[in-house]
Sequence to fold (257 residues):
Amino acid sequence: MMNRVPVRCAAIAAILWAAASAVAMPARSCRPASRTRVLPPIVCIDPGHSAATVGARGRHSAEYRVAWHIALLLRRALLHAGCSVVLTKTSAGENVSNRARARIANRAHAALFLRLHCDAGSATGAGIYYPAIAGTIRGVSGPPAYVRIESRSAASLFHHAFIAALHGALHDRGIMTDMQTQVGRRLHGALEGSIYARVPVILVEMCVLTNPHDEAFITSTDGAGKMVRALAAGALAVTNRRLHHRTSGAQKPAIDP
Fold:
């Protein structure tokens, strides 16, 4: 959608920034329990869209701005928990291709490529997507089988912790596959960011921004704080599992397609 940016985006951004002080840091940690020196797992946070693509629009907010500010709050929470964090953008409006976003996650050897979005439509609530089958775009097919397997596991671990931490604040739309999205079907099975991923990848539709209840939730100080705590809980559930596997066996290399 390419309509003009809503005039109240700046006010919403200020509210989301205020949520930083309200975010209680997660109890779980990325720090390894053993005395053996192990580098903390890396979470690559990918705030969806840009000023050029905008994404979903609520009455008072735009997806690319909401995703960016939630990403900044989430980075703070995960760093406090001992994780390493990489962002795929340097500003809300920056336009970064899906291939470049995936490349950042791949080259960081991220334990989780966490893509943050807001949905549009008549539904309500939050949903988790992962690639169950490979898709194809511009002659590139992916993600490979091992990424699909790891992404399915990540989606399950993430969803359980995420929904528990939300405490019913939003409707649970469940776990779905990329193929259940319009873009995933067009690309024969996977979202574009998933196709290029060589690390575990999930996409979180944090809310339905065109739903007034959902928009009010995620653009409020309290709602943004709850969302960040839930996202952090989900990410830590995945990274702690990956950290255990990393200390007990070799990891597959993340090679850019």
